[in-house]
Each structure stands twice: as C-alpha cells, then as structure tokens.
Write a structure and sequence with these properties.
By secondary structure, the protein is mainly α. It has six helices and no strands. The longest helix is centred in the middle third of the chain and has 35 residues, at about 80-110.
Length: about 180
C-alpha cells in the first residue's frame, strides 16, 4: 500500500471512531427520549428509522458504483488508493451506523406496533436480512480491494448494483401496502 493509502486508512479509522462515538451518543439520547418522552417516542423512532434507512440505502446504491470504477483502476495507482479511502469511509462512517440504527429502530417499531406475527413484516424482514447480506458482501469486497485483489469485474458490480433496488422495493411495498 502506498503512503497515501496508509494515511487515508488512518484518517478513515479516525472517522469511523468518531462515527461510532456519535452513534453511541445518539443512542444514549434516544434512550433519554424513550424514558422521558414515552408518549411521543414511537414518532421519534419512526423518524429515526426512516432517516437511517435513507442513509443506509444511499450507501448501498453508491458503493457498487465506487466498485465499478475501482475495478477499472490499476492496482496500486493513485486512483485505486483514493477509491480505497472512499469505500472504507462510506462503509464505516455512514453505512454501518445507518444499518445498525435501521435494525434497532425497525425492530422496536415492529414490536411496539404489534406486527411481529404479520406476514407482510416477515417478508419485509427477509428483504432487510438479504440487504444486510449484500452489505456484508460489500464489506468483503472492500477488504479485497484494499488488498489489491480484483476477483470481480466492473460488469459484476453493475449487476450487483440492482440487488439493493429490488430489495428496497419489496420492503417499501410490504410496509406501505401490507398485502397480507
């Protein structure tokens, strides 16, 4: 790895550390809302869940585009090293915290709403579970790109880019339409 890549990785780790600190602080504030604003907490949880989903999905849509360009760059090049930093920061600073919040507040809403036995929720949770699997696949790809492994093509990432879209459509339809 080049000196620029190492510097970027250190800066990325600091960003990830700050993001996790902010996430913990945020969860602490949410706990305070839960305790002291119990009557309106469901609305707060819904707002936080929607914000987290939007943030997570933005990363899920953008990451494979970075992979497309990264796959076409020469290993060890300045361009490749820049993509490594961008991918690492997107995953650690935005996507991971957003996924965690999505799960925490989504499960709370399902429980508080009394929907745990509803079929539509089971389909939605399955779609979110698969989305989490795609997220994990992206995380593995970041590690491979970081080690200058190019086991997949740019075409592969263009195709993979469609998975979050399909899963998001299923989840939204289940929540809004509740077909069963």
């Amino acid at each position: 790895m080049t000196e620029q890549g190492e510097t970027g990785k250190v800066a990325g780790r600091k960003s990830a550390s700050r993001a996790m600190t902010a996430l913990l602080l945020f969860l602490f504030v949410c706990l305070g809302l839960f305790v002291f604003q119990r009557d309106s907490f469901y609305l707060w949880a819904t707002a936080i869940h929607v914000i987290a989903v939007i943030s997570w999905m933005a990363g899920m849509f953008y990451m494979p585009r970075l992979f497309v360009y990264h796959a076409d760059s020469a290993p060890g090049s300045e361009k490749s090293e820049t993509f490594k930093v961008m991918e690492y920061r997107l995953m650690k600073v935005i996507m991971n915290p957003a996924m965690i919040l999505t799960w925490i507040f989504g499960l709370y809403l399902a429980w508080d709403g009394g929907w745990l036995s509803d079929g539509w929720l089971h389909v939605k949770l399955f779609a979110v579970f698969l989305m989490s699997g795609v997220h994990g696949y992206y995380s593995k790809a970041i590690k491979d790109f970081s080690a200058d492994k190019r086991s997949t093509s740019a075409r592969h990432w263009r195709i993979v880019n469609e998975a979050p879209t399909v899963l998001m459509i299923i989840a939204v339809i289940m929540v809004i339409v509740k077909p069963f």
